[in-house]
Amino acid sequence: MQDILSRLNAIHRPHLLMRAARIGAENYRRSIHLRRLLGFDVLPRSGAALIQLIEIEAELNAERKMADAGYSLIRHVEVLIAMIGEARLVRTTPIEVT
Description:
Elements: H1 2-9, H2 15-25, H3 30-38, H4 46-65, H5 73-92
Helix pairs in contact: 2-5, 3-5, 4-5
């Protein structure tokens, strides 16, 4: 899990984008938001979901930097909100040893 959090900490985005995501993360509901973003009936564990969200966000950020006409600021903020919410869950959930 630490590698995921290290990867997350290395991400730097514009202040206003992150501020909007942090505010939105206060109302993050995994069952609603994550299902809409990832499209799964059965939601993956927080670590796996966070990896997928990081990949989606990287693509969105590339579109933002290229000023791609298909870039959606709203979707980017939604993904960042989910990333923050899932990262909080990863940090607070004890790791199971099998």
